[in-house]
Write a structure and sequence with these properties.
The complex is a heterodimer.
Chain A (H helix, E strand, L loop, with lengths): L1 H7 L4 H20 L7 H29 L9 H23 L4 H10 L1 H18 L3 H7 L1 H8 L1 H16 L5 H24 L4 H5 L7
Helix pairs in contact in A: 2-3, 2-4, 3-4, 3-9, 3-10, 4-6, 5-6, 6-9, 7-8, 9-10
Chain B lengths: L16 H13 L1 H7 L12 E2 L11 H6 L13 H4 L9 E6 L5 E4 H5 L5 E8 L4 E11 H8 L7 E6 L9 H4 L6 E5 H5 L4 E6 L2 E2 L9 E3 L12 E7 L6 H5 L23 E4 L6 E2 L7 H4 L13
Parallel strand pairs in B: 1-4, 2-11, 5-12
Antiparallel strand pairs in B: 2-3, 4-5, 5-8, 6-7, 6-11, 8-9, 8-10, 12-13
Classes of the chains: A mainly alpha, B alpha+beta.
Chain lengths: 214, 307
């Protein structure tokens, strides 16, 4: 099958990587052209935040898609997509930390403690750090598949808290936060249902089902 | 009454008016830029405007920012949306219905409002509750000129304002996330204060639609959402009128909504603000820097409770 060949080709990761970089390049292009609205720092904050939650959703969609479409090869892209989520989350965090607050530690600490939406955003970001660090094959081996898988379920929490962060910061138009909330809910509900159904199957089959799928 | 002006900016820092106006003319000259800016640059010039001593000497925010970074939820919740979506609003003919507790209720045509009092340029700081700010050369006249014409009765303790509601060109309430029509209010002494103006223009021209054409309120010591746009109705009342953001979220937006760096919004600090065009945040001033003029209105009031 042609699709399978494309998905398994070692070259496919290159265009996917380039595709994931487009939002960052587009932002840089707009910055060079002075096209970041009247409030550039706010614009960059929203842009990087939007792409963080989108990449978290895309990453969470890999497992359902590979099962529903019977395309196990999709797993090859999951790490890259997740790391891009972390990349945009880092840009988002740094925009706030450096551009908005300009290393004003006092204000930053106060915000993290006092402002629920910042507490949530900060938590969602911090939860992604161990996942980014242990994303290498070496770390999977060191932790062992089961423990690694457990740890990486933190992305569920991070995505949920990320949506809450978005919901808490908007003033009145909650349509987008609700949309992302619905997407994350569906993606997590799929896992719950799949898990319940798998629970009825004999364990022996599970043992041979290959690499950990979170 | 003594009205003071704080010398917070050195004269050498100020962009001369002919320069900032020229910057715009330069934009108009470029067909591509003019096209991109759309109708925003098409306001007719206003004549015979006097300069007000109440103006700040701070650097005026570029016209393009003030016309492309707007909160006008009826025309989109994104700040870039009103610049294009508000152009659909029909602002002529236009009347303002003035009534309630007044001896002379009447309907003013916009032409009558334009001639109601000598037009002044008032360069004011404008501080949004979202912690950004701009400096705008508004054109208008004291709101008290209109109030005096209506002759409020003893019962008039508050003034309520209402924005036009045209469902054919505006977002639905659920899309805007706020009840419509947009309503605002002031206490009568606030409304009578010489700093509160009815505004019909800015940057030497009639108001662009996204900035509240054809007539809006400007109350520079309060958060921007108090300065209601595109007014069709002014009513004098005995009781405090409901206001849109307050009825959307009373904990976050009070009736008074005076700029106050010491009283935080529940979700963010109001201690500092980002002036559009500046990289570093600047400290927010009490009553947006108009404390000398307006603090007396709130003597004895708990501003933490009456936020």
């Amino acid at each position: 099958m042609a699709l399978k060949r494309i998905l398994t080709s070692r070259w496919t990761k290159v265009p996917v990587f380039a595709l994931c970089l487009i939002p960052a390049l587009l932002l840089a292009w707009r910055a060079l052209n002075g096209d970041l609205s009247a409030n550039p720092i706010e614009f960059i904050t929203h842009w990087t935040g939007d792409w963080t939650i989108r990449f978290l959703c895309i990453t969470l969609a890999i497992t359902p898609l590979r099962k529903l479409l019977r395309l196990p090869e999709l797993i090859r892209f999951r790490r890259m997509l997740g790391l891009f989520g972390f990349f945009y989350a880092s840009l988002h965090f740094l925009t706030w930390f450096v551009l908005d607050k300009f290393f004003d530690w006092h204000e930053i600490l106060k915000d993290v403690v006092k402002r629920p939406f910042i507490t949530a955003g900060f938590t969602a970001f911090v939860l992604l750090i161990p996942l980014a660090v242990t994303s290498t094959t070496g770390w999977i081996r060191r932790l062992g598949g089961k423990r690694w898988q457990m740890l990486h379920r933190l992305i569920y929490v991070s995505a949920c808290v990320g949506v809450v962060h978005y919901y808490w910061l908007v003033k009145s138009d909650i349509r987008l936060p609700l949309l992302y909330g619905a997407v994350v809910t569906v993606l997590l509900a799929y896992r719950l249902v799949a898990n319940l159904m798998r629970g009825r199957r004999p364990r022996a089959v599970l043992a041979r089902s290959g690499p950990p799928a979170v | 009454m003594l009205i003071q002006r704080s010398p917070d900016v050195r004269p050498s820092e100020i962009t001369p008016k002919h320069l900032y106006l020229n910057r715009r003319r330069f934009l108009v000259g470029l067909p591509v830029a003019a096209l991109a800016a759309g109708n925003a640059l098409a306001g007719p010039k206003l004549e015979g405007i006097t300069k007000s001593p109440l103006s700040t000497t701070e650097k005026v925010t570029p016209y393009n920012d003030v016309t492309h970074y707007n909160n006008y939820y009826e025309f989109g919740t994104g700040k870039d949306q009103p610049a294009s979506l508000a152009q659909k609003l029909k602002t002529s003919p236009w009347t303002v219905d003035v009534g309630g507790a007044v001896s002379k209720p009447q309907v003013f045509d916009i032409d009558a409002i334009m001639k109601m009092a000598p037009l002044e340029e008032r360069i004011y700081r404008h501080r949004c509750v979202e912690a950004w700010s701009i400096v705008v050369p508004w054109i208008g006249f004291p709101l008290n000129a209109l109030i005096k014409k209506a002759e409020p009765t003893e019962k008039a303790r508050f003034v309520a304002f209402q924005t036009v509601l045209d469902r054919r060109v505006m977002l639905s309430e659920s899309a805007a996330g706020i009840p419509l029509p947009y309503v605002e209010g002031l206490r009568i002494d606030e409304a009578m204060h010489p700093l509160a103006i009815l505004c019909v223009g800015m940057y030497g021209e009639a108001l662009p639609k996204q900035d509240g054409a054809p007539v809006r309120l400007v109350v520079p010591w309060k958060y921007g959402f108090k300065s209601i746009k595109s007014i069709v109705k002014i009513k004098f009342l005995e009781k405090q009128p409901p206001t849109t953001w307050n009825s959307t979220n009373a904990r976050e937006y009070g009736f008074y909504s005076n700029v106050n760096p010491e009283v935080d919004h529940p979700r963010w600090s109001q201690a500092s603000e980002r002036r559009l065009g500046e990289f570093f945040r600047r400290k927010t001033l009490m009553f947006n820097g108009y404390a000398d003029q307006v603090a007396r209105l709130y003597v004895g009031m708990d501003l933490r409770k009456n936020y």
